Each structure stands twice: as structure tokens, then as C-alpha cells.
TrEMBL record:
Residues 74-157 form the Core-binding (CB) domain. It comes from Fodinibacter luteus. The lineage of its organism: Bacteria, Bacillati, Actinomycetota, Actinomycetes, Micrococcales. This is Site-specific integrase. InterPro entries: CB (IPR044068), DNA_brk_join_enz (IPR011010), Integrase-like_cat_sf (IPR013762), Integrase_catalytic (IPR002104), Integrase_recombinase_N (IPR010998), Integrase_SAM-like_N (IPR004107), Tyrosine_recombinase_XerCD (IPR050090). Signal peptide: none annotated.
Length: 425
């Protein structure tokens, strides 16, 4: 059986000396820092014998794999930046990593970044959570910070930078579940009426009837839509990415161009509107189209082709998009959101989020008696817990089921049942 590979002499050599303070000191290499340089741990004892014993103990722990790498040197900020920049890009999507980075760089690193990784305790994190709540952050934000910290510190444990994960023991605040308030059928009809005749007016019919996510709807191409068969396939999504500096080799380095934001860098890269794969495997799905929506999409296609002919000299032919700008380009999600708000105002409908159109579609499907598994497939949900948020619709269906059962078993037989329970005179 082969043992652990031996470290080179340069990597494992320890040095001893007697200091001006009269004590004996040693420097022991325990591993490598994140920058690749040797990490040397300092020991100090009153006698040389005590020092030799301490050095042997540390070297034996290191050589047997029991010494966590970078035991004393690494700070929480160093680990979190290493996790964000070196580990996450290999396993998660850009948007997910961007959200993680926002949580950590805004809410964690400014407060706890200087703390040594090994000094973190559950109480340290709980104090952070209370401070965030006192600063007006919602329980959803604080719970998100907790989840990201737990994930990053789990990786530190797996790689032996930590013995235990303090975030696994810390108690985050209880998340307040917000009740979904979907649009009513009358409100939906008012929105569709207000959108009629607009550029991309069918966009809102797709949102309210199919419940596509914003990026999914904006990423639709005509190859994804079979109007004859009445089927639409979700295969990609539009995403806006933050520009990165191209003037510096590392994202966190001081930008050489002198500009703070990557969007201002003359050599900016990796930003702007891009098409990406859907967020999960179940998000890649086929959805049947309601017949009225098929007719509306045919009319939208004809109007778009007329516009394309009128502006042939400036039309963007990169993608054959179902919903595009008036010159054929990808629609910015921010502009799409502004259009939604304008349609709501024109329709005289209360202000709701664009994502509430997706909630509305799911609710309407449930209220029409579509079984939950079919709704999950249409919406691209992966977990039943997501469907349970629609408890208002599920409760109404339960009452309707009870009414139907009553009609099936007792309708017309009430008198007979009443008579059968009369006591003898």
C-alpha cells in the first residue's frame, strides 16, 4: 500500500532559533497559501526541548493529513473570494455565482471579512444576521446570506480548511412566507386588451397563459414555435451579464484602466445580453398553446415580417426572435419590465411584479382543475414544495372536490338519508 507522497525538503523544512527575548522559536511549513507561497506557522517555547516536541507534533499532524491547510493565516474574505473566483465557476451558472457574490460582498465581507476563518463561531454569524435585520434587510435576504455562507463554508470543511461548519449550527431568522396574490381573470383580460396593437403585444399573452419566465420568453426563436402543431419549446433564455474589466488579469485586481465599473473599461468583456441554457433540466420543456394564442402569434409573426421588410437595411439578423426590438435585436430585460409596467397603467390594473404573471398562469391552471404534476411540467418546476406555495388555489380545489363528492353521493337522496336516521316513535 502506497503512503502519502512526501513533501520536498524545501516545502517541509522547519527552522529553529533562539530569539533576543531568550525564548526558542520555530517556523514550520504547514502547507501552501492561496497564492501558492509556502505557509509558515510560528511556534515559541521557553526551552529547546519544549520547542522540539511542539515542532514534532505539528509536523506529524501535517504529514498525516490532520493539520487543516492554512490553519491560522487565511481570513474569511480570502476564502470567500477564492471560493467565488476559483471554485464556483467550474460548477454553477454565471447568474447563480453573481447572486452569491452580491450576498457575500455586500452583506458579509465588509463586516466579517477580516476575521480568521478558524475563528468563526455560530454566534458570530447570528450577530451578523441580527445586524442585517436591524439595518432593515428582509428575512429573505438574511436567509439568502445564510445559505450562501453555509455552502461556502461546507466547501472549506470538505477541503480541510475548517474542522466544522459554523453556518450549519447557526440559526437564521425564520423566513416570512408571503402569500401569492395573482391577477384575477378580469385583470388579465384588461391587460391583454391594453396590449393589443402594441409592438410585441403577444408577449403578455404568452406571459399570462403559459407562465414563461422573463428570460425564457425573451429568448424564444421562431424555430421553437410550431404554430401548426400548437406547441412551443423552451430551449434558452436571455440574460444580462455585468461587464468585467479586460485591462487586468484578475477580477479583483486594481483596474489598470482607472475606471471603477467594468462597463466603462475600454477592454471590457463577458457582459451584455447573452443567450444561455435554461436554469434546470426541467426548464427545457414543450408547452401546448391555447388556440387563441396560436392565432395571436400568427398575427404577431405577420406584423413582424412586415416590419422586417420595412427596415431590411438595419434589421439584426443574428437571431430569428419571436419577441425583439423594432430592429430585430434581443430585448433588454429592464426594457421589458418597463413595458410591463406601462401596460399595467394603460389597463388600469394594480401594480404587480412581472413574475406575478407567472404566478397567475400557475394559479389559473390549478383553478381549472389541471392536476399538479401537469402544472409542474408546464411551469418547469422541479420541486413539489414550489407548488405548495399556491395553497390558495389548492384549497379552493379541495372545497370544489368536496362539493362534487357531495353531489355525487347525496344529491337527490337527502330526504331518504334524513328519514333513515329518524329514531322510532
Amino acid at each position: 500500500m502506497r503512503g502519502r507522497p512526501r513533501a520536498s525538503t524545501a516545502d517541509s523544512a522547519s527552522t529553529r532559533y533562539r530569539g533576543a527575548d531568550g525564548r526558542w522559536h520555530a517556523r514550520v511549513t504547514v502547507g501552501r497559501r492561496l497564492d501558492g507561497e509556502r505557509d509558515r506557522r510560528h511556534l515559541s517555547r521557553a526551552t529547546k526541548r519544549e520547542l522540539d516536541a511542539a515542532v514534532r507534533e505539528l509536523e506529524n499532524a501535517r504529514d498525516s493529513g490532520q493539520q487543516p491547510w492554512l490553519l491560522d493565516a487565511i481570513t474569511l474574505e480570502q476564502w470567500l473570494e477564492h471560493w467565488l473566483e476559483e471554485i464556483l465557476p467550474l460548477s454553477v451558472r454565471w447568474k447563480t455565482r453573481s447572486g452569491y457574490a452580491s450576498h457575500l460582498r455586500v452583506h458579509v465581507i465588509p463586516t466579517l471579512g477580516a476575521a480568521r476563518l478558524t475563528e468563526l463561531r455560530p454566534e458570530t454569524l447570528e450577530r451578523l444576521y441580527r445586524q442585517l435585520m436591524d439595518d432593515g434587510r428582509s428575512t429573505h435576504v438574511v436567509h439568502g446570506v445564510h445559505r450562501v455562507l453555509r455552502s461556502s463554508l461546507n466547501e472549506a470543511v470538505r477541503r480541510q480548511r475548517l474542522v466544522t461548519n459554523p453556518a450549519a449550527l447557526a440559526r437564521p431568522p425564520r423566513v416570512e412566507r408571503t402569500e401569492i396574490e395573482p391577477l384575477t381573470a378580469d385583470e388579465c383580460r384588461a391587460i391583454l386588451k391594453a396590449a393589443r396593437g402594441r409592438l410585441n403585444g403577444a408577449r403578455w399573452s404568452v406571459a399570462l397563459s403559459l407562465g414563461l419566465r422573463q428570460g425564457e420568453a425573451l429568448g424564444l426563436m421562431w424555430d421553437d414555435v410550431d404554430l401548426d402543431a400548437g406547441v412551443l419549446r423552451v430551449r434558452r433564455a436571455v440574460q444580462r451579464r455585468t461587464w468585467s474589466h479586460g485591462c487586468s488579469p484578475r477580477r479583483r485586481a486594481e483596474p489598470a484602466c482607472g475606471h471603477l465599473r467594468g462597463a466603462e473599461c475600454p477592454q471590457r468583456r463577458d457582459g451584455g445580453l447573452v443567450l444561455v441554457e435554461p436554469k434546470t433540466r426541467s426548464s427545457r420543456r414543450s408547452v401546448a398553446l391555447p388556440p387563441p394564442l396560436v392565432a395571436e402569434l400568427r398575427a404577431h409573426r405577420a406584423a413582424q415580417l412586415r416590419l422586417k421588410l420595412e427596415r431590411a437595411n438595419v434589421w439584426d439578423h443574428t437571431h430569428d426572435l419571436v419577441f425583439s426590438t423594432d430592429w430585430g435585436a434581443l430585448i433588454d430585460p429592464h426594457a421589458d419590465y418597463r413595458d410591463w409596467k406601462q401596460v399595467l397603467r394603460d389597463a388600469g390594473v394594480r401594480e404587480v411584479r412581472l413574475h406575478d404573471a407567472r404566478h397567475t398562469a400557475a394559479t389559473l391552471l390549478l383553478l381549472q382543475g389541471v392536476d399538479i404534476r401537469t402544472v409542474m411540467a408546464i411551469m418547469g418546476w422541479t420541486e413539489m414544495a414550489t407548488a405548495q406555495r399556491y395553497v390558495h388555489a389548492v384549497d379552493e380545489l379541495r372545497h370544489e372536490a368536496a362539493r362534487r363528492m357531495g353531489a355525487a353521493l347525496w344529491d337527490g337522496a337527502s330526504a331518504d338519508l334524513t328519514g333513515s336516521h329518524q329514531l322510532p316513535g
